[in-house]
Write a structure and sequence with these properties.
The protein folds into 3 domains: 154 residues; 61 residues, no CATH class; 44 residues, no CATH class. It is an alpha+beta fold. The strands form 3 sheets. The protein has an 8-stranded antiparallel sheet. The protein has a 6-stranded antiparallel sheet with strand order 4-5-6-7-8-9, with no helix packed on it.
């Protein structure tokens, strides 16, 4: 009998740029503050998970706490600590594993069908992604449980802002229309809302390519490698390619391919399965 492969459905929540959030269920919204936020909090199979984030003055994530079954992992810039002890990668523990994942870093839990993936840049983390392989019937607290901005901003009362010594970044207009003129075949009627989120993402961070490029990359991946923007978005935005270790070269390809690292020194292709998001990010020789 022929074997049938059943792909596990994934439920994804992510934040990128200076405050764009895509919750597990619902559309993108924007909230940017240097206040601490609960990103996702839930209980599954009697195991508690609590993920908290805080952004720094550059808009990137400066501090992330991941608590699973009372074990705390802290991401601070490029440093990782577990239960207060700095760890090196790969880190293997009875309950969780942390390892390099192409240009990303990933934490995979042994207690929950959960993985957390992030990308570190100078100054902070520009992309944080939480993936679940199990639907949460009891719901999710925090930003990942929101389907719009209502309720999220209620947290930012003047009293709480004063208590936490934090603030909401003030909006400043920033044109994103040039980039989105290349995405009309993909976004269509959604273009105005994406332009609004783009301008919110870039406010006060016009001089930061990390903030802009994290957003543009997510949109290009959303549109896919058959869209018009796919082949031109880096030249249009002047977003440089990520660097790879050693002599490996970074290449972006479509979702039909398995993400791969290619070595220059090998005559044949050495394939390392990465499974990075929906769009392949590749290092090759």
């Amino acid at each position: 009998a022929a074997m049938t492969t059943i792909e596990t459905q994934k439920y994804t929540c992510k934040t990128f740029g200076s405050g764009v959030v895509k919750p597990f269920d619902g559309s993108h919204f924007y909230v940017s503050s240097d206040c601490p936020f609960t990103f996702a909090r839930f209980t599954l199979n009697r195991v508690e998970c609590d993920i908290a984030i805080r952004r720094g003055p550059r808009g990137l994530l400066a501090h992330v706490e991941i608590i699973i079954n009372k074990i705390k992992t802290v991401l601070h810039g490029g440093d990782i600590s577990v239960e207060g002890n700095s760890v090196s990668l790969p880190y293997d523990h009875t309950y969780q594993h942390i390892f390099r994942y192409g240009i990303y870093t990933r934490l995979r839990s042994s207690l929950l069908p959960l993985s957390v993936t992030w990308h570190v840049l100078p100054g902070g983390i520009d992309t944080l992604r939480v993936e679940l392989e199990h639907e949460l019937s009891a719901g999710v607290a925090g930003l990942c449980g929101k389907d719009n901005l209502a309720g999220v901003m209620n947290k930012l009362s003047p009293e709480e802002e004063a208590e936490n010594n934090c603030f909401c970044f003030k909006l400043k207009h920033n044109a994103c229309r040039h980039f989105f003129s290349y995405t009309l075949d993909c976004l269509r009627a959604k273009t105005p809302s994406f332009i609004q989120i783009c301008e919110q993402n870039s406010h006060s961070f016009e001089e930061s390519p990390y903030i802009r490029c994290a957003f543009f990359k997510e949109v290009a991946e959303h549109c896919g490698n058959t869209s018009f923007v796919w082949d031109v978005w880096r030249s249009v935005t002047e977003c440089v390619l990520p660097t790879c270790p050693g002599e490996l070269v970074y290449v972006e390809q479509g979702a039909a391919f398995v993400p791969t690292l290619y070595s220059k020194k090998e005559a044949s292709l050495k394939m390392v399965t990465l499974q990075l998001y929906q769009v392949q990010t590749v290092c090759k020789g």
